[in-house]
Design goal:
The complex is a heterodimer of chains A (about 425) and B (about 260). Chain A is α/β, with parallel strands linked by helices. Chain A has one domain. Chain A is about 55% helix and about 10% strand. Chain A is built from 19 helices and eight strands. In chain A, helix 4 packs across helix 6. Chain A starts with a helix and ends with a helix. A five-stranded mixed sheet of chain B has the order 3-2-1-4-5. In chain B, helix 3 packs antiparallel against helix 6. Chain B is globular. Chain B starts with a strand and ends with a helix. The relative contact order of chain B is 0.20. The chains are: A alpha/beta (about 425), B alpha/beta (about 260).
Chain lengths: ~425, ~260
């Protein structure tokens, strides 16, 4: 009853498609759970921007521990588990997805059991496949599971701080993707089939195009969906890319958001300011921050994070190279010049009034305030920026009062303009 | 007579200030914030009103600011301490400047332009190093009343260098220095120096510099040290601890259309 009452009070506008998303996410986790119990199909754990299309083409079901990390964060259970991983030698300063996920595994707990009746744990992997384009922590994360579960961990080591992408970058990544195939054939028992690979790259491309259109509905004034909702609706683009299910879902969501645009039904009533969120979400505070910004009549409506699952390069006719390009041209592995130009483009495209940098304590690769970027962008774009300290999952690193005072003062500054 | 009140409920102390429609200060008061911000705000407000001939019937507008601004039930409006400090500082120094406010729980560097518009601001990270809380903690460890720090620092022969970022580790470092025979005066000057270092790390200090806050109000030697370190004159408002409260009162006046 208490929960019902609280829901009624929420100022966050409902997105009707969310019901369908919950269903397809549930189906996804049940399918993994059933496969883990039956031992077939084989399960690959994959990093969020790892070679999922290759794995799907070889018959694996794909599970994403980073998604599980986000679930631990958004259910505010991460802080129950982070200390467990700290105690076995994984520092509180490293990725709190890693520490919360490993800690939860050690304790034999997962929010999936509470969300989905009958699921007893995360689906055990047959192989672990990483791409270090997110960070080196994902490799360490998978190494821990590899030793713990006696499962092979294989992957791709990316380039970092790339300016222009050259053929030699792509050739090296293509070589590494191809090197994965023999091990994957052995574990799955399936021969690599280029046509299947092309098929899944095509599905991922279609998914990513729709996801891009979803995000671009926010170029409208008022913007129909907040960043905080986007991070939730991004789920299928992360874990169900390479499936018709995700494509159908984004068609549905897009239609709903286009309807909101036509009706000028903004996520924030009387939208006054439009803000860019740079960096990771603070998963345990999504709802709280969403409501806080609504009170400030401020729409947080564009972000690097949600745009990181747009892979323009996917081309089923050239699956290896296009996949290598897609996973190499993402923001997180690019140099400061690229990142600044990218954000500048977003500021103009989405007609934004300010930039909020989230300095996420345990996620240096997604904390782009650390090398002077806010100051440089502020000078160049003549729009203010604000940095708040926090973390993706470890709420010990987030001081609520300070963060909110900073945000409120930032909006007061925009008002006084 | 109409009056306008600003109440700044800080983490350590609560300040109230009352002005009239001509922006003249009629009364002011400070007390500890304690655990009940509402009570602290009421007390500061009552004390500020007493003896200045202000009666409630003439009340015009109360605006609260500071860490506990939302706890002031009798306030008509709220604004962040960042906006209020900028406003209060510009009232006394009406030209472009950089304000450094060292508060009980946080430090702020706020830049305003020639029209008083805020250009940027930075607050310390959530750690209390570099704030009044740091000085309180170290004074407590040294068993020195907080009010005596300035008098000791001014007598120092040299400034003890403290290397840690962290308040707790600094306290440990100080114990080591005491064992090594370092003079208390030099240690106190060292902790002033540590607070100054934290402020210098936050933002470049451009143009004219103004300093405010309780630490500044009670420790003139701290301001002198700061000035020597940056090689610039530092301007201090006549009521440095009330800068935020004054800004709040000025906003109250504006919001009421006075």
């Amino acid at each position: 009853m208490a929960e019902k009452k609280e829901k009624k009070k929420s100022k966050i506008k409902k997105i009707q498609s969310a019901g369908h998303m919950r269903k397809i996410m549930a189906d996804y986790f049940y399918e993994l759970n059933n496969a883990a119990k039956a031992g077939s199909p084989k399960i690959a754990w994959c990093t969020s921007v790892g070679p999922a299309e290759l794995l799907l083409s070889m018959g694996f079901l794909v599970y994403y521990p980073e998604n599980h990390g986000a679930i631990l964060g958004s259910t505010r259970t991460a802080n129950d588990y982070i200390p467990v991983a700290n105690a076995i030698g994984y520092s509180p300063d490293i990725c709190s997805y890693l520490t919360s996920d490993v800690g939860a595994f050690i304790k034999g707990e997962t929010p999936l059991t509470r969300a989905y009746e009958g699921i007893e744990g995360v689906p055990k992997p047959d192989v672990l496949v990483y791409n270090t384009n997110q960070c080196r922590d994902v490799q360490e994360w998978f190494n821990w599971y590899s030793k713990e579960l006696n499962v092979p961990s294989i992957g791709i080591t990316t380039y970092r701080n790339i300016g222009e992408i050259h053929d030699y970058h792509l050739e090296a990544i293509v070589g590494q993707i191809k090197d994965l195939i023999p091990t994957l054939e052995q574990i799955s028992g399936n021969k690599f089939d280029i046509d299947k690979f092309k098929h899944f790259v095509g599905l991922s491309r279609d998914c990513t195009k729709l996801w891009k259109k979803v995000l671009e509905t926010n170029t409208a004034v008022p913007a129909p969906i907040s960043f905080f909702d986007e991070t939730i609706h991004m789920g299928p683009a992360v874990v169900l890319r390479g499936s018709e299910t995700a494509i159908e879902y984004y068609k549905l969501l897009l239609e709903e958001l286009e309807g909101k645009v036509a009706q000028k039904d903004g996520a924030v009533e009387e939208e006054k300011y439009r803000i860019y969120w740079e960096g990771m979400p603070i998963w345990g505070k999504l709802r709280d921050l969403a409501e806080f910004f609504i009170d400030l009549k401020t729409a947080v409506i564009a972000s690097t994070y949600c745009n990181s699952w747009i892979f323009d390069a996917f081309d089923p006719d050239d699956p290896f190279t296009s996949m290598a390009r897609a996973y190499t041209e993402i923001f997180i592995v690019r140099d400061e010049n690229f990142k600044e130009k990218y954000i500048e483009g977003m500021i103009n495209k989405y007609k934004l009034d300010g930039i909020l940098f989230h300095d996420s304590k345990t996620c240096p690769n997604n904390s782009n305030n650390r090398y002077g970027m806010p100051e440089r962008l502020q000078k160049k774009l003549k729009i203010p920026s604000l940095t708040i300290n926090g973390d993706l999952n470890d709420l010990r690193c987030y001081s609520e009062e300070q963060a909110k005072t900073n945000i409120e003062a930032f909006i007061e500054q925009l008002e006084a303009k | 007579m109409k009056y306008f009140a600003g109440i700044d409920v800080g983490a350590s102390t609560t300040k109230a200030i009352i002005i009239n429609g001509k922006k003249e200060i009629l009364g002011y008061s400070v007390n500890d914030s304690g655990a009940d911000f509402e009570v602290a705000a009421e007390q500061a407000f009552e004390d500020a009103k007493s003896g200045v001939g202000v009666v409630d019937e003439n009340k015009s507008f109360v605006l609260s600011t500071g860490y506990g601004r939302r706890n002031v039930q009798f306030a008509d409006s709220t604004k962040t301490e960042i906006s209020c400090h900028a406003k209060g500082s510009f009232q006394e120094f009406p030209h472009a400047h950089t304000l450094i406010d060292i508060g009980g729980q946080d430090s702020k560097i706020i830049k305003v332009d020639d029209s008083g518009k805020r250009i940027s601001f930075k607050m310390n990270r959530k750690c209390a190093a570099g704030t009044g809380a740091f000085l309180e903690e170290i004074a407590n460890r040294l068993k020195i009343p907080i009010g005596k720090l300035d008098g000791l620092a001014v007598k120092a022969k040299e400034e003890t260098q403290l290397g840690s970022y962290c308040t707790v580790f600094t306290a440990t470092e100080i114990l080591t220095k005491i064992r090594e025979g370092v003079e208390v005066e030099d240690l106190v000057k060292g902790i002033f120096g540590a607070v100054i270092k934290r402020a210098l790390e936050m933002d470049p200090l451009d143009g004219n510099i103004v300093m405010s806050g309780g630490v500044v109000a009670h420790n003139p030697f701290f301001v002198q040290m700061f000035s020597e370190k940056i090689g610039k004159e530092i301007f201090v408002p006549s009521l440095p601890q009330y800068t935020g409260a004054l800004g709040a009162a000025l906003y109250a006046l504006e919001e009421e259309g006075g």
